[in-house]
Amino acid sequence: MAEQFASKRNLKFMLYEVFNAEELNQYEYFQDHSRETFDMILDTFYKIGSDFLYPLYQELDKNPPQYVDGQAKVNPAYREYMKMCGEVGWLNANWSYDEGGQQVPTTITMACSFVLAAANCGMTGFPMLTTGAANLIRVFGSQELKDCYLEKMMAGEWQGTMALTEPGAGSSLADIASTAEDTGKGYYKIKGQKIFISCGDTDATDNTIHLMLARIKGAPAGVKGISLFVVPKFRFIEDGSLERNDILCAGLEHKMGFKGSPICTLNMGEEGDCWGYLVGEANMGLAYMFQMMNEARIGVGIAAVGKATAAYYDALEYTKQRLQGRKANQKDPSSPQVPLIEHADIKRMLLFQRAVCEGGLGLGLQLAKYTDLAEVGQDKEKYELLIDFMVPMVKTFPAEYGILSTSAAIQCLGGYGYCSDFPVEQHFRDIRIDPIHEGTTGIQAQDLLGRKSTMKKGAAYRLFMEEAGKTIAAAAVIPEFKLQADTLAQGLQIMNDVATYLFGVQKEKGAEEFLADATLYLEMVSLLAVGWQWLMQGIVAYNALQGQPTQGDERFYLGKLQTLKYFFTYEIPRVNSLAHVIKTSQGLTANMDVSLFEEE
Amino acid sequence: MAEQFASKRNLKFMLYEVFNAEELNQYEYFQDHSRETFDMILDTFYKIGSDFLYPLYQELDKNPPQYVDGQAKVNPAYREYMKMCGEVGWLNANWSYDEGGQQVPTTITMACSFVLAAANCGMTGFPMLTTGAANLIRVFGSQELKDCYLEKMMAGEWQGTMALTEPGAGSSLADIASTAEDTGKGYYKIKGQKIFISCGDTDATDNTIHLMLARIKGAPAGVKGISLFVVPKFRFIEDGSLERNDILCAGLEHKMGFKGSPICTLNMGEEGDCWGYLVGEANMGLAYMFQMMNEARIGVGIAAVGKATAAYYDALEYTKQRLQGRKANQKDPSSPQVPLIEHADIKRMLLFQRAVCEGGLGLGLQLAKYTDLAEVGQDKEKYELLIDFMVPMVKTFPAEYGILSTSAAIQCLGGYGYCSDFPVEQHFRDIRIDPIHEGTTGIQAQDLLGRKSTMKKGAAYRLFMEEAGKTIAAAAVIPEFKLQADTLAQGLQIMNDVATYLFGVQKEKGAEEFLADATLYLEMVSLLAVGWQWLMQGIVAYNALQGQPTQGDERFYLGKLQTLKYFFTYEIPRVNSLAHVIKTSQGLTANMDVSLFEEE
């Protein structure tokens, strides 16, 4: 297990050199912050990561939470961690002072989320879901709901969850079947079953507050008839004390990885007495829940970056130390063996990992910066459109390429990478959930192509092109980047051609064929987005090298330029083949009769 | 867990319709066989797979072999299986009658190996290694060694192993450090340590016969000083009885998957009394061992096809049954949900899996057919060259694309794919070892580009092009395949350009830069090879459809054509981007100073 799981040097590069986090302090909302407070926050969470979370990473995989006495029994460290998160103000760091928060920019908290997930992804879901659930109550809930729940949740004493999935409704939320019946007494009676509920019922906290989707009796079919409820494990009764609600954890799923984060099945109303409290208006549940879903999707993406990054540092440390073989041009068997990292194929795999990790981090922080700019009212609509457009990429690129990246980390370690002495195999298992939960890759792809690319007459799409275009323009005047700037410009042109082609398919052939290759479209656009991020990082590194960097900084910046070149040379060419496939597939999957999978 | 783990229908298509296995019976060596004996053999092993092996697949993952009393304690089923393999003549089915075998064509035994691995990959390594080890003794050993070991091994009473890897010598076999000292008494004394030895010391058999590489004292450095020894766990003494040899299993590794196949560390000569028997001549060990390494590489490839195939059938069965969502052009939420398989994105993932599995199986069986033709003396040199050229692809394509294929199987099942209720997550873990053991992908790639493509002045390379060219010519006259035939012909032209380019790099820049992108070259050539196989299958299916197939056969053949089209539309375009990368990378990795991975 490498000492390093995330790089402070790179984070500071990203935050201060690429994204100019300090410029946020000029806005009133963030004016109390400064580079010093940002550094302090980063240092705090890096320390929590290295001293508290990281040493538990393998332990939680070997001894995962168990189902005991009707709930998940977790390592006592979880309770300690949730309290710690409450005490340091992590859970509501972004909230306004009025709401008890610290008005920390999302740019900074997302960097911290990355660090925590790199240290121990399984534990970090607990605070993330608590914040997300509390945010729903904060934004859409009544004053009474806020008064009842937010304080305890923000103290880390009560856990929040996101209770959507049901046995018959996974990707298809329209088919949610849990019911809610108004009692006329200020609460509804809930009946149904939820599955795969992360942190659904554990002994890490004293109460669990489920933000749950259900259908009020008589509501319209489909997504227009879904409402949002607060369903606590322990409910308040009139005297202000708590009593057990009729919601039971029926068991935990056994997962391939990500074992530090238990997922459970919940049965509501088996005794006919599960109380739930309506959040906001009836039948608006899915619209509200999209807030938490977007937060969770971004959270999944940034956690995937974390997992892949920790695996990368394991591979880097191992390949620097492990001697194996000789260079291809140096075959004298009596000469000493060289470190693995000296082999071109290993360098290629390390550059791939670095490109995915630091490029994926760039995507996430770019979205965070847009979030902060939207928060302070700077072209709010513009930034919200950019965020909408980028969420599917921020979620999916690190998840899908992260599988390949952690797999490359295993390959760097050879046989040892496949054994549990090193945590790379755990990272590979842990990250495999990320293209599934919080909306599969297929769902993200349909979102990007079917909604985000067309909404507001393509406004989000055009804004994305404009933002990338600005970076291309800045790069094009630097001879060093002429090739990459041209390549990215051509890539965006290809993307445009593909989009035009697909909108034609939509018109002529309908939705089924239009969306058939959405997953490839998502991959293609994501590669270009990551290319844009690398070009942005490259410009900063190039400019820094024109000054008088220290020797260490010089290596760091040159490493950035090398990784940029790697990404454009080795990965961007996929854009062409993806575009080619999309434009030639001609409904091959959409129109295929499934009987052709039969063999007799 | 799906009922089906491999398809008899597809195997019969491959064996009898594509590869005309019966035509082998015209040769004297195979003349006692017929379609009937082939079918009987296939049915026997399919039954062993379905009735005996498959039900144990998940069990061995949950309760893997444990280190007890200095060896791996395995489920008693292993002992039963090894005996069964001995009794049905599985272990030496290919051997000549003179040698106690049954002269079964490799085309048939490889099909059986595929079935067994699909049913339970972990257990099937036991017979495979026993056969491979015995083959070394059979081909290179003295009569005395043959007399001592072969009978018991072929009865499944003694296990064979392949003992190469050491703590300081994994991919770099030149650095093997175990020593052998001639005692002058007919045996050598061996000293050293071996790691990652599959089936290295278990209670499944009464003795373990290690085929081990070691260096005789005073031998030259590097691969030219390596000799091959038989090192038994129990050795014969003069009266013909057995006594314990000084070789100890020091423990088992804990692997991410493939747990049914234990790997151990062996310490030889801790008491200074480990006896080993030289096989063949001194210092010829690596050359001999290449026979077993090639067998094992082919075995790994075909096992990977098996794992991916079993996962595919899980995904197929699940997506046919599981209802989720509606088609994109049918959004009425009150309409019933459709099976997952109706969604274009799911069909795409299933076609990908089918293309990888049935294409990978084609590659393996093609090599098997060449093996049989070489065996009967038909253009022996030609077929041996083709085999040499294809081994790296037969090993690596199913291993690397199998990771993606089993990952796609997980994705088809969504959240359930990530949980241990279904075995797809196990297949994903199990297959991840295949790009590592028996030579990593990087090693296979260097073998293909650095040796196989250039050996005998490119003779193997040209033969491969010729074989693919014949299929292209046959396809080109069928209008249905015009596009694919042209595409494959262009692909081979691209491959040729790339090879010419790389040989220029070799001349001008040297070995290091020449081999830097060997892994990409291997992927590119493999995609073309699989495209060739698909075209071959497509022609057969097309011709069959011109007759009067039953309705079931019609579906099967149309499914073949659909998968062929999928592969050429969705996967072959990668050839272009891989070629582009190779031709533009300009030593980016080879010449990179590794200090650029430093961050300060």
Set down the secondary structure blueprint:
Two copies of one chain form a homodimer.
Chain A: H1 8-18, H2 35-53, H3 57-62, E1 66-68, E2 71-73, H4 76-87, H5 106-140, H6 143-154, E3 158-163, E4 179-182, E5 188-198, E6 207-216, E7 227-232, E8 234-236, E9 242-244, E10 247-252, E11 263-268, E12 275-278, H7 285-321, H8 344-375, H9 380-413, H10 424-431, H11 441-452, H12 455-476, H13 482-509, H14 511-515, H15 518-546, H16 551-571, H17 574-584
Helix pairs in contact in A: 2-5, 5-6, 5-7, 5-8, 7-8, 7-9, 7-10, 8-9, 8-15, 8-16, 9-10, 9-11, 9-12, 9-15, 11-15, 12-13, 12-15, 13-15, 13-17, 15-16, 15-17
Q: What's the short version?
A:
Two copies of one chain form a homodimer. Chain A is an alpha+beta fold and 600 residues long.
Write a concise keyword list for the protein shown above.
homodimer; 600 residues; alpha+beta; Butyryl-CoA Dehydrogenase, subunit A, domain 2; five-stranded mixed beta barrel; two-stranded antiparallel sheet; 56% helix
